[in-house]
Design a protein that fits this description.
mainly alpha; 79% helix
Amino acid sequence: ADNQVCIVSSGGLDRLYCAMDSHRTSAGVQKYACSALANLAANADNRVRIVASGGLDRLYGAMDRHLTSVEVQEQACGALAILAVNADNQVRIVSSGGLDRLYGAMDRHLTSAEVQQQACGALANLVNDGNQVRIVSSGHDRLYSAMDGHLTSAEVQHWACEALGSLAYNN
């Protein structure tokens, strides 16, 4: 946690954003920057800073420009999952198009257990009273598809079950 705080407080976010902005067409840069954002978001204060400083736009940009990259989609979905632990971030992610991007990643990468796992985790973390109906209406079928398509992946099953449980609980 100390490294996460040190990196953000010493200008690490600005440098990550600069790399993402300067190398939009590089799937490698986008993948590793999304991964770094996910790791930095493990710190609760960093979750707030990342979203407040334009992190969602960078993640969405990476997802939108690299639709066919399993690695970019996986890392971006993972970052969204961790950012969604924060209640205010949940609202921002849903209101800014995050659900559509998660659904798109799931739909385009049906055979990737890693994308399905990270996206299911993000959906599980996004469940709250304000967006539950929206996730149930368009997300439950994707959770079923992830489960059916990855029967042997404990991680996909775990996060899909958690998402379904949260949706059922917050009824």
